[in-house]
Amino acid sequence: MKMIKTIKSLPMAVAAAAILAAAPMPEGTPIFGENTAFAQQAPAKKDQKTRKVPAMSLDAHKKIQKAQEAMDVQQFVEAKEILDDLLESKRINDYERAVAWQLKAMIAFEEDNTQATIGAYEQILRFAESIPEALEMNIIYGLAQLYYSEENFDKALEYVNKWESRIDPTLISVSHQQFIANLHYVRNEFEGALKYIYAAIETAKSLDTVEVKEAWYGLALSSHWELGQFEKVRDVLEILLINWPKPQYWIQLAGIYQELGDEPTSYSLTEAAYKQGFLDDKETQLVNVAQIQLARGAPIKCAWILEKAFKENRVERSPQNEKTLGQCYMMAYEYEKALPPLSKAAAGEKDGDLWFQIGQVQMQLGHYKDAVNSFDNVLNTFKNTKDTKEKEKRLSAMMSRGQAFTELKQFKDAHEAFKDAKRMATDRKDKRMVTQWEKYLRAEEEREKMLKG
Fold first, then answer.
1. CA 328 to mean position of chain CA atoms
2. Residues 87, 100 contacting (CB under 8 angstroms)
3. Given this model, what pLDDT does residue 449 score?
4. Whose CB among 58, 75, 118, 145 lies 3.0–4.6 Å from 70's, allowing a Cys bridge?
């Protein structure tokens, strides 16, 4: 399960820190520093040392302001030319270079050029000692997000580790924890993903302003599954079902109880989902509910579920599903109702074994003519077989065919059937059995003659 959330609208807190005031600033006035709004809200160590931000010259400020005015009207080419010209100057200080690169990062972001945005941010870090530490921390974290969006997860983790090693732990927010959890997940580091996503959940629970998200438990669910921690999967699914009672969680919870060997609970959950209509658009699950009834010794309920699903066009009348319906009726001793779906299944799958079973049921019900057709289908299905068991099935079908003709008083056809059966028999036992049926056939012929006088 890939959970990459491409950052198409990355919060531009990093780039926004370089937004300049509209009016020209006096020479020596820092554009961003410890007292800016950005520095105040940026998560950083409580005991971090104050950095002295160099002053910006009036000339550099004018060029920066001119570049921003071009950016405001989407004249990015002009803005880049101004910034490139400024960066080529040997007279500007590191602070001014950082500001120029920050505007270039904003342009690259607006142009949806992630690689260029990354390159610009990394240039800013070259001048880290000349910018507020809060800004540096946000750039490092922003780079982790950008590399994540490019699916360069190794680099993303590198920047996350650098950021986390320097940040005050009490200032790590829910969104930070969620992002880091996702990063570990896509790296298949499921233990790490669980550590951070559960931290996010606990942090959110402790705050009145943050709501625990369903997707967070979804990530925990997937991580536990990947680790084979099925008891934990069950626990998370129960939380999801209670708080977000979606059909999929009923089905998944039933499945995990099955995996854990608790079939009664699994069956009960599946039935509950069925009764609530959660399975109406899930063909496989509807068939599964029917099969559960078989397993629980309620075959007639199995048949009712399938008949209803067929009638409502929720389940395809495939040979396999027809076969399941027929088997349900068979186990419920509803033999007459079992024959139509079983016949459809046998015809669809060219199933010689099933045709033989159908023929036997038809014999028991006295449907001898239909039984002859079923046994003919067995013979045709296994006509050119070299398999020993299938040859035995052909012999049984031929003998049963002779029995059906006997019951129909079609004695000539019966004799032919038994004669063919004797030719097919390969051992004494089978030949003796055919001989016994031939004796029965002759006795029936004599009895019929006596009855007719």
1. 31
2. yes
3. 85
4. 75
